[in-house]
Amino acid sequence: xxxxxxxxxTHLFHIMIDTVSIIQRFYEPDSDLYxxxxxxxxxxxxxxxxxxxxxxxxxxxxxxxFVVEAAMLHDIGVINxxxxxxxxxGTEPYICHGVIGRKMLDDIGLYRHALVCERHTGAGLALSExxxxxxxxxHRDLLPVSIEEKLxxxxxxxxxxxxxxxxxxxxxxxxxxxxxxxxxxxxFDAMSSLFGEPDYSLLHSxx
Length: 207
Ligand SMILES: [Fe+2]
Fold this sequence. Notes:
By secondary structure, the chain is mostly helical. It has helices at 3-12, 19-26, 32-57, 64-73, 97-107, 111-118, 127-132, 147-156, 170-176, 182-195; strands spanning 82-83, 88-89. The protein has a two-stranded antiparallel ribbon with strand order 1-2. Helix 4 packs across helix 6, helix 4 (64-73) crosses helix 8 (147-156) and helix 5 packs antiparallel against helix 6. Fe (ii) ion binds at residues 40, 44, 74-75, 156.
């Protein structure tokens, strides 16, 4: 199938959704957490879109509309976690925010977006890593599979909700993943080879 036809088929089945309205179903718009989540989600969406556009320019089909939507929703599960440093006053461990987000989006029928939530933590988590580390997560692979899932996962590693004022260099993004172990670093390096370093000059500040 030629590239243009592939792009058309991909887009044919995609109906745009209003991600901010979806976030507002779960978050109080005046809250610090809502403002931080929206800022972070927009940062990740902008970077994922930039990297996706570069792939498309080199002939790789990417569903960019979906990438932007999924990036906007990827952290929707943080609200139920215990991370007061970023205004999250729930009870679940922070590492569970992806699977919490998956359930929230599954419940409103956004099954494809939901998978992005549960597959974006670290550089994804394999079942073996979840078991070895005794993580409080479902015993299955939580790994990004599609190019769109990988784009959101990778773009997310360049931003921190604790320090939203800056974007990380590739080196720092990689360093921050070292705590997840060598398999994570290997997957990050594979995504890095695929997507490259962001062109920082093309990203405008979303503060
Ligand atoms: Fe994130």
